[in-house]
Amino acid sequence: MRMTVCVKQVLSTGEVRMDPVTNTMIREGRQSVINPFDLHALEAAILLKERLGGEITALSMGIPTVEALLRDAIARGADRAVLLSDRAFAGADTLATSRTLAAGMGLIGGFDLILCGKMAVDGDTAQIGPELAEALDIPHVADVCEILTANEYSIQVRQAAGYGFCTLEVALPALITVTREANRPRMPSLAGIRRSRTAPLRLADSGELALEPCRMGLNGSPTRVVKTFVPVRERVCRPVEGSPSRQAAALLDMVKEVGI
Ligand SMILES: Cc1cc2nc3c(=O)[nH]c(=O)nc-3n(C[C@H](O)[C@H](O)[C@H](O)COP(=O)(O)OP(=O)(O)OC[C@H]3O[C@@H](n4cnc5c(N)ncnc54)[C@H](O)[C@@H]3O)c2cc1C
User: Fold this and answer.
1) What is the 3-state secondary structure (H, E, C) of 133-198?
2) 188 CA from centroid of ligand 1 (Å)
3) Which atom of ligand 1 lies closest to the CA of 117?
4) CB half-sphere exposure, 199, CA atoms < 13 A
5) Strand partners, 115
6) Which atom of ligand 1 is nearest to the CA of 129?
7) What residues are paired with 117 via a beta bridge?
8) What does the DSSP 8-state code read for residue 18?
């Protein structure tokens, strides 16, 4: 099975710094890791490869330092990687990101299954998987918590659907997004780390993609971040005294005051 795992860089500390001019996140020079949900998507691909054979390509759109994260993905079990990196991709919203990743799939060639994480822990829109599937005109199943059966024509999965589960079969090629409950990601092995140092990693810029510049990055993003700010959390302590009924009345007044 030819599989592609979409891997996103996220900052390892929660502190978000925004560029006051473009209102986009500052990622340069910040410690970063593979988005935790993508480790579950990668593990799902490795388990499928162990069952059916095949090849795993890790794909990312990001700044040049994402190369180290893609080599980490190879150390965990991917066979090769593709990094789409260009200033022209900066400030992309989910639509522009999914279009760029779809164009990046053109560099990978054929595929049977694309695996994404359920969501990214920073943007957390969970939009990229479904949008990428639409851009490639293939079916998708979101929130997959178990892959039940798989062969060269289709996969059967269990989907976490609100308070229950759905069992779905989808014909390949397809895309799935994977939840944390699906598996336990393995750590990189020593052999994997050694292999990751020399494994094929293709670096591609906007000129190599079949995508017009007006559909990538900030230019290709209908979402406009008009203002960013770090909310100031104020804690005020107000004693509630008197009889239980007076305390209840005072609490009700406070609830009304803050408009809950
Ligand atoms: C705090 C914050 C809020 C944002 N709000 C919005 C918003 O409301 N609307 C909007 O359009 N954009 C928003 N963005 C921008 C958005 O984060 C980027 O477009 C991002 O590339 C994809 O969206 P996401 O982080 O929500 O990913 P999700 O859709 O949550 O990611 C799901 C999966 O898609 C894959 N994936 C995501 N990004 C990449 C990538 N760059 N390379 C490879 N695989 C990837 C991964 O497998 C990931 O697990 C926001 C960004 C931040 C930091």
Assistant:
1) HHHHCCCEEEEEEEEEEECCCEEEEEEEECCEEEEEEEECCEEEEECHHHCCCCCCCHHHHHHHHH
2) 25
3) 49
4) 24
5) 5, 176
6) 34
7) 178
8) B
Tokens 């490639």 locate to 136
Overall average pLDDT of the 231-255 stretch? 88
Distance from Cα 247 to the centre of ligand 1, integer Å: 45
Is 2-215 assigned to CATH 3.40.50.620?
yes
- How far is ligand 1, taken at its centre, from the CA of residue 94, in Å? 6
Q: How far is the CA of 92 from the centre of ligand 1 (A)?
A: 9
Domain ranges of the chain: 2-215
Q: Tens digit of pLDDT for each residue in 22-44? A: 666 666 677 899 999 999 999 99
pTM of the model: 0.89
Neighbours of 1 (CB within 10 A): 19
